[in-house]
Amino acid sequence: MKTRIALVAVVAVIAAGCGGTSEVADTRPRSTIPITTTVVPTTSAITEVTPTATQAPQAGGVVAAPSIELQALRTAFKQTDVQPPSRVEGIIEIRGTASDVGEIDVSIPISSAFDPVTGDGLMSIDFSGLMGALGEELPPELGTFDGFEVRQIGDTAYLKFGFFNALFGVETTWLSMPVEDSQGFAQDFTSGVDPYDATGYLKSLELAGGEVTVVGTEEIRGVATTHYKALFDLETLQDLDPAAFDDLTSSAPIDGFSLPLDIWIDDADRVHRFRILVDDPELPDLNPGESFEHMLIQFDFSDYGGSIVVEPPPAGDVTDIDDLEDIFGSMFGDFEV
Questions:
Q1: What gap in Å lies between CA 120 and CA 111, rounded to an integer?
Q2: Where are the domains of the chain?
Q3: Which of 212, 223, 250, 334 has the most CB atoms within 10 Å of its CB?
Q4: Is the alpha carbon torsion for 285, 286, 287, 289 positive or negative?
């Protein structure tokens, strides 16, 4: 796959006025809320280390029975998807060199929350670090591209996205639209991990084989967990679940068929953290003058069984997206959110 510094490319696309499509792989409500605490890529001290356990395809393409450790991950992925956390906090880090802007070192915080009873929620992504990394290369029209927020209440989604508003001359702070038009929007900016449904990313790995190591026990946000380190074999997944394979390999920062993943699971089979860390991968199809030194994608799950209350923005500060279609007609229709 061609792994360019993905978010720089996204900004270039948006600057050109064509946001691309936002495919919704799962229509179940997944939403999010701005949370002040930002996840940082650190872990607690390891208190116990246990031996490695592996599971891999046998000769002839027959998949061996999963190891105890791999089965533990599969159980946790399924459990976390069935009973998702109410709060998710994440961070994406990118470090490397892009031919058009030089060296970049970017950190993008993500926060979200979701009420499993009402289906309401909020989500925010902070692009200020990305904008700072672009520096003088930042086009003036991207001065408002500092992040966005989505609130989902019932069948309506409210989008706060300064760049979008400036692009179309929207005078209010918020845009309202049907929920289905907003879902998948955030995934375009987060290397394929949808903050609306971060647990779904793990569920897509249920049929993948791989090597699993139990690292030890650690506390994540005060919860005792077991830390697993896995190297998933996506070739097995390609045979058993081609759709899941395509979803993962089209956007994940991986080379070939291996996906490195660290997972922290509690005694109730619930995931509390997962992390993809790629350092100095061999990616021969980078463009001349480009390098990819580091990418980290990390999400923390918390507040299982919790509830949230989402307030709509003031009615006078909201523009309905249908009003924009009336103004811009087919031109607006070509710009999909």
A1: 15
A2: 6-333
A3: 212
A4: negative
